[in-house]
# Entry
Amino acid sequence: MIETLDAVTLARVQFGFTIMFHIIFPALSIGLASYLLVLETLWLRSGKAVYLNLFRFWMKIFAVAFGMGVVSGIAMSYQFGTNWSVFSDRAGPVIGPLMAYEVLTAFFMEAGFLGVMLFGMGRVSKSLHVVATGIVAAGTLVSAFWILAVNSWMHTPAGFSINEVGQFVPEDWLAILFNPSFPFRLVHMVLAAYLTTALVVGAVGAFHLLREQTNAEARKMFSMAMWMVAIVAPLQVVAGDLHGLNTLEHQPVKVMAMEGHYESYPHGAPLFLFGVPNDADQRLENAIGIPGMASLILHHDLDHPVTGLDSVPDEDQPPVAPVFYSFRIMVGIGLLMVLMGLSGLVQRLRRRLFENRALLRAAVAMGPAGFVALVAGWVTTEVGRQPYTVYGLLLTGDSASPIDAPAVAASLTAFVVVYFIVFGFGIWYLLRMMRRGPVEAETRPSGRQHTGPHSSPMTQPLGDGHD
# Structure
């Protein structure tokens, strides 16, 4: 099948494949870095060993996830030169400096203090160590800031002019940076990272509670995770709605594809819960919808007219099926997160948060759901932008390198093989660490321990939290 695809399609598949692997690791790193900062702060304030045990446990998982994120990000960035050189040439004056600022700020912050966070406990003061953890956490957020600024500008370009050779030239860096969709994308992504991490932490805690209900570390991480889901999931629903309204304003065709609206509705559009998009016949088959609900959500009026894809030339339409389905997967998982947060609150009020096995099993099952929602959201966002790389200005077909399809197919095949081997092993190792748990992975602190220059803080107890 690969042999029948053209070079542009293969390049798009390759970039999509690599970024789907990449996006899960930075999201977990963002959430875990903040979680580690909370754990260490709580340990310093309370002196409770449970927080120290959890910090050391999740720190190792963070280190592996952070490393895989860096490696997958480097491999992904090379494609700008190999497969998308025309895009790099034309958009480089705008996106190049922004990506350089990400390296000069976020990466330097993370690289400069990651070693202190991983290996400095017992070698530097507690206050300095928590500062290092805080800087690493801040670095992950700064990295998200710059990368999302780049991505948002590609969706809602602003603050530029186009020179005589077709390059996008910066005119107003503040307008470029804070382009119309950037605040919504940044909030939506950071909340998604926190929710994804909370589900992972909650799944690990629930897994160990199913094995031993008295496990103090498992009880603590499950409780913290359920608080995070209960608070952040509703916030994400609000942020997602605001992001959708922003998308309707600046990328209305994407919203048409998300909603499956092939036709215009002069007196209220239905919200389609299910259907089978048919781009060839420009209709949604086997559709199940709620009358007027799309108009209510998009315009807060049941009878508000909604424009459909029948108003858009075929060549300017994105492929509807992947956008339509991925959007529903993302929203469906989001609603399950809200339900899980509500269920956790109910069981907490009933004082059965750690005993309700149905909730614990549901938490384990929901462990990977955040990653699925992340990927589905990315598909919705990026495929919905087609046929453009810079929305409305630079076509994807005009952005690719002058390279033959067999060359792209060969590199795509190599990526698939290497990624499944390397990152497959990395994910297996992460799951193995999570399965062992903090109690089995770490010796419980009991009294003052030696942490001198010949004692590794990664393998020796670190004190009882009162020293």
About this structure: The two ends are 64 Å apart (CA to CA).
